[in-house]
Amino acid sequence: MKSRRRPYSEQRPTDAGGGVWSVPVPIPGSPLGYTLVYAIESPAGPVLVDAGWNHPEAWLALRDGLSSIGMDVREVRGVVVTHYHPDHAGLAGRVREESGAWIAMHEADIAMVKLLRGFDAGGHREFRADMLRRAGAARVEVEEVSAHQPRPPALPDRTLHDGDLIDLPGRRLRTVWTPGHTPGHICLHLEDAGRIFTGDHVLPAITPHIAVYPYDRADVDPLSDFLESLEKVAALGDLEALPAHEWVFQDTAARATEIHTHHEEKLVRLAALLAEAGEPLTIWETAARMTWNRSWEELSAMLRGMAAGEAAAHLRTLEVRGVIRRTPEVDPVRFALHS
User: Where is the Metallo-beta-lactamase domain positioned along the sequence (predicted)?
Assistant: First the structure.
């Protein structure tokens, strides 16, 4: 699919129709450029879908963007966070401070926020360093990747479950639990308008990051969760998608099916890669041999860490399906085809 992504400098708050507005909020230093924060009108004050990265530039963009469409951030009724990542949840706490708004998030991601807020900076770096070492990263890579960690978001005060209606007077906005990108990722089905806020679950040109953290966990399978969530959204039919990145697009179901196919093809290629290796590979070695949008040598430390997480998720799904096995009692963990 040809990208129609424009740089943040060309973005403006936009009337998406039907009482919905989009406000681009920058993500400093990220190739994604910005998060699309949506404001939904209601008689009791606007409700935001996501809030953007916690950064002074991002805060000004959100506050002034809302003002430019006739909304005062101090009148925001609530913030529904599609998932706990900092480019979505980061400014929710600041909005609550300004307006007294509630913050709502799925229970599984609230658990993640509590976990992150329980770490001190040193403890989290130590956790990440040990995770990277067990994946087979070299010492210098462990040090580089572990150095990057944003502050955890504010703790929500409302818990969402699959099927819950959002507190949005005059509209029917229903929670659709779509785990995969995070354990508690949600989409929001605007049932009275045939539209769906997809967060990072279904994007028009790119695919969301699906990873296992820690990389060697054997009790979760986020990629399989994600594939099931794609089927769940596709079953809702031909809805207009309002994603958190890129642009609004038609036929969410078709795009969800396309992303599903992409990952199944990636799993086939990964199994072939392990067959060609002829020996068990660590997660880090596997990631280094996979195909990314640039060579492994060109990836930054942070992007290598993300690539390893994605490799781990695909390895875990192949393991669950019985295609590969992990070598028992080996540190770092290694994977090979079943003989």
Answer: 34-245
Task: Give the helix/strand (H/E) hosting 16.
Answer: strand 14-17
- pLDDT tens for each residue of 179-219: 999 999 999 999 999 999 999 999 999 999 999 999 999 99
- Phi and psi dihedrals of 233, rounded to 5? -70, -40
DSSP string, 168-202: -TTS-EEEEE--SSSTT-EEEEETTTTEEEEETTS
Q: pLDDT for 123-143, tens place per residue?
A: 777 888 888 888 898 877 877
**DSSP code per residue over 252-287:** HHHHHHHHHHHHHHHHHHHHHHHHHH-S-EEHHHHH
Regarding pTM above 0.85, the answer is yes
Report CA-CA distances (Å) from 216 to 39, 284, 304. 39, 11, 16
Peptide bond into 243 cis (omega under 30): no
**Alpha carbon distances (Å) from 283 to 75, 148, 266, 270, 289:** 48, 20, 16, 12, 10
Tokens of 144: 């580089």
* CATH architecture of the domain with residue range 8-265: 4-Layer Sandwich (3.60)
In the chain, domain spans: 8-265
Residue labelled with tokens 């639990």: 177
User: What SS3 state is found at 163?
Assistant: coil
| Cα dihedral 205→208→244→190 (10° resolution) | 100
Beta bridge partners of 23: 37
